[in-house]
Specification:
Layout lengths: L13 E9 L1 H11 L9 H6 L9 H15 L7 E8 L11 E13 L2 E10 L2 E12 L2
Antiparallel strand pairs: 1-3, 2-5, 3-4, 4-5
């Protein structure tokens, strides 16, 4: 795989797509790595008592999963990501048996000199879970 060049890109072009399945054990491992042991991420009873529809994936886990296809498209060079922003718009509810499938589509949003803005559409259950998810990458 070669690193993309800005001259080869067009606005609206899909540069990466991926579907990731999260399971409850994914959440436990992420909790251990991040130190975020909030029980809404692993206990159904606590999630229900908080008025949630079920155990939720960590927002930062979802955000990290969403940018990974872009990093892979950059030939694994995460240093080329110069800015990444998003808003959390909906939770990702992780079913105890089925898990949760999160779909990521990365499209070129803006091209300028050596930088590209990659717009991410991140969805779960047919609904967008990250709003205005944008990754600015240096392609020089």
């Amino acid at each position: 795989m070669t690193r993309p060049r800005i001259s080869d890109l067009t606005v609206g072009e899909v540069v990466a797509e991926r579907t990731v399945t999260l399971h409850r054990d994914t959440l436990v491992r992420y909790a251990g790595a991040s130190g975020d042991f909030n029980p809404i991420h692993y206990r159904d009873d606590v999630a229900a008592s908080a008025g949630l529809p079920g155990v939720l994936a960590h927002g930062m886990l979802t955000m990290g999963l969403a940018v990974q296809p872009v990093v892979d498209w950059l030939d694994g060079d995460s240093g080329r990501v110069v800015d990444y922003q998003t808003r959390f718009t909906r939770p990702v509810v992780v079913d105890p048996a089925e898990g949760a499938e999160v779909t990521i589509v990365a499209k070129v949003g803006v091209l300028e000199e050596r930088f590209a803005r990659i717009d991410l559409t991140v969805s779960f259950g047919g609904q967008t879970v990250l709003g205005k998810a944008q990754v600015r990458v240096d392609l020089e």
